[in-house]
Structures are given as C-alpha cells and as structure tokens.
Amino acid sequence: MTVMPAPSRSFWQDSNSGAVLSGLITMLIGWAGPNVLIYSVAQAAHLSDGAAMSWLWAHALLAGLTGIVLSLRTRMPVLITWSTPGIAFLVTALPGIPFPEAVGAFITSGVLVVLLGTFGPLTRALQGIPAPLAAALNAAILLPFGFRALQAFGTAPALVGVMILAYFALRQLAPRWAVAGVLVAGVVASAALNLWHPAPVTLALTRPEFVAPAFSLHATLNLALPLTLLAFTGQFVPGFGVLKTNGYEPAPGPVLRACGAASVAAAFAGCHNLTLGALLANIVSGPEAHPDAQRRYTAAVWAGVFNIAVGLFAGTFLHLMGILPAQAIAALAGLALLSAVGSSLQGAFQGVAAGSLAAPVVLLVTLSGITPLGVGAAFWGILAGLAVHWTERRRPAPARLSVPPRPAPATDAQPDT
C-alpha cells in the first residue's frame, strides 16, 4: 500500500521520541559499519589521516543536508548516504591513481548521475519494479545483518544474549523503545563483561581538506564509469526498492539529481558518490520510526541532523565507536533490522500468483553475492527476478480439455409418426 504524503504540518508536530531514536540508531550503525571502510581505502591508496577525515566530513554534512531537504520536501523518509559498493571498489581501484584525478572522476560520476535523473525511461523503469520483487530484494539485502548477529552470538554469547533478551522483552512491554534498549543493554553488558576498549578521546573539530580536481581519460574510464554503475545498481535500485516495500514512492528523477549535485559538491573535499540509502533506510521507514507512516519522514530528518553533528567531529566519534566490541555493533544492526526483514519477506510472497518463482529468484541471486562484470548482486537479483516475472506473465494459460456434451437419457416414449 502506498503511503499518501502527510498533510501540511510542522516538523516538530510530526516528530516524536521514536523518530529521534530511529535517526540516532541509523547514524550509529552507519558510522560503526560502512563508514569505517574509509580507513581501508586510505591505507591502500596511501592517503593521509586528514584526507580520510575530510572524506568522512563531506559525506556526513552533504548526505545529511541532502536527506533533510528531500525528506522535508517529499514528506517521505529519504535517507542519503555514500555508495558502500563504491567504497569497497575504491580499495583496489584507487591505488595508483593520483588523488586529484580521482577527485575529478568523482565529479564526473556525480554529473553522470544528474544526467541519469533526467532520463525519463530510466526513472519510469525504477518506478515499474513490482512491489513483491522490491520486497524480496530488500529481504535479501537485510538477511546478512541477521546472520552476522547470530554469528556474533556464537563468539560472544553472553553479550549478544543479553541484547537479544532485552530486545524481545521490550518488544512486548514498550515496542517503541526496543532498539534503544538494545543499545543500552549492549553498552552495559560490554562494560560488565569487560569487553570494551576504553581509550582517551579528545573532542576536536574535523577540518576539511579541499582538493583541486584534475581530469583524465584514465580516471574517467577506471573510476568514474564504474562508480556510477555501482551507485545505480548497488544503491539506487535497492534504495527505491526499500522505500517501495515500506509504501513510499518518491519520484526517482529529483532524488537522482539531488544526489548527483551533492556528490559534485562533496567531491571537492575528497568524497565519492552520495546515493539513496538502502540498508539503513529500513530503520527510518519502518513502524519503529513512528506509528503513523505519514510522519516517518521525521526519522530521516533526525538521521541527517545526527550525521551532520557527528561529521563535524568525525575523528572523535570514530574513536568513541571503537570502544564497543564488534559483536555488540553486529547485534545492534541485526536486531534493529529484524522487523524490516519480517515485513519484507511477508511482502515478497503476498499478492503473487501461486507457484511464482520470481521472488525466490531475487532472494537467491542477491544472497549469492555474485558480481558478473563487476556489478553488484542486488542488480543481478532484481534483473533475474524481473526476467522470471515477465516470463511467467507471458506463459499461456493451460488449455482446457473440451468435454463432449452428455447424451440425453433414453426414454420409453415412442417417436411421433
């Protein structure tokens, strides 16, 4: 069911404690997971700590600001983040390319995303993905978080066990506070079990380092084009799928153009593509964010506010996140997304023809993690599911057997003569 835009009300009237907490949890999981990947890129490409912190600063401020503006304009929970497949790609692709040329490639990629947002057939194709397939894609994206939470239980059963018990107990008593309770339980249990790593932390503003771009054909072919493809297939396609699964269908064109423009601005501080959120978008668009679906946009706004606040002190916050053990972060992410996993699996198999294999194909291909041609599994999953869906729709209905009319029963009456 599509959620209709909210009536014109003030943000403060629409917001509540659940929206604030959902925004906070979204920011915490993002900074504890994908954001720390920047260290891998910095080490591989021999970038300075200042360049890495500037990268994070630009991502946090511009992604947060873009998400706030889009969420307030559409009254939908539009979460903006950077391209996680892109940062993974840069670990191997960036070394050997001068950083000014990489920044030029980041700018080129942002311009390409803006152009994609003006291409009508593409935006219509995004809107035309069937809802059950979008739900199956979302479930496949989220399930690994649940698997990692269970793996964390295997290595730290006491810590993760306390967090799981807290979650399900609060789900019965105060569902709105369940995820926040998990975070508190994780912090307390980590301290009680002596599993955290306290270290002196200095509060200091992050200073951006602006880079004069250089443009080269080599960087365009080896960075700009792959980054654009990864942003589209790995973030925008599943991101719109997440929103559709939760009942939101923003026009793709304005979102693509806004992300492309923000990416161009962020590139001057050394940051790659800013895109529509996929994994974390479930936290701000699900029922825990707000009981009223028309008011969940406020959770995405709060996520943007927290991202901006943390981005100003990027180095300090990353040191704080390092205090918690990895198992606590994995459990927090898995439990925060558990409700979204359930609703996505339910949506994937509701309202489809009996015996349809389209949704299972999306699940299996996406979970397989295959990357033919260097393109992420999420793209191949939705492509394979659409192929099965169209094949099933064009399959002729089974022919009905013609049954000859039954002969009239015999009677003893004599025919007229």
UniProtKB/TrEMBL annotation:
Transmembrane segments: 20-42, 54-72, 79-97, 103-122, 129-147, 153-170, 177-197, 217-243, 255-280, 300-321, 328-349, 361-388
Region spans: Disordered: 398-417
Alphabetic keyword roster: Membrane, Transmembrane, Transmembrane helix
UniProt KW Transmembrane helix keyword: yes
A Pfam short name: BenE
InterPro entries: Benzoate_Transporter
Name under which the protein is recorded: Benzoate transporter
Species of provenance: Deinococcus knuensis
Lineage, broadest ranks: Bacteria, Thermotogati, Deinococcota, Deinococci, Deinococcales
